[in-house]
Amino acid sequence: MHRLASPAAAAAALALWSASALAQLAPRAPSSSPTPSTPTAREWQTSCEAYVQVLQGIPQVDDLEVTHCLGLTLGLVEGMRLGSQIGALNFASELTVAFGLDPSQVFALFQRRTASSLLEICPPEGIGLKAYVIAVHGYLANHPEDAQRPVTEVFFEALQAAFPCSTPGAGD
User: Fold this and answer.
1) Can you give the pTM of this predicted structure?
2) How many CB atoms neighbour CB 121 within 10 A?
3) Domain range list for the chain
């Protein structure tokens, strides 16, 4: 097992690893269609219309739609967070084996990374689901051409646009 030559070499390995993990999450060319289990952005938007109406003070809405919107939004946010960390850890493991790196050093570097820095989405501290819904709903209002794409892709792009990191890796 080789030790990393220097902190700079460790940082370079981590940067490569982070870039690769982010590339796995980054949207590709628009998908031809979502899989049957992945709702479209339009389906998410339709479900969340009721919640947006509540936020605008309109009291007569379908509670089931509000609950569905918030549940789907929470699942998307947490799925991106956890998925980014799992993907990055998997890639770090591959790098460790492929280049004979010291696993304890690689894992120490991994522990310093946050989901925000991996995703390049840096929301303000303490943000709630309301802000995520508003951000994605607004994004779809400005990008109606994305409505038939999988909500997972559009959600990622919308949150990157709404909550950019000031510098790459700023979520650390």
Assistant:
1) 0.71
2) 26
3) 7-29+37-162
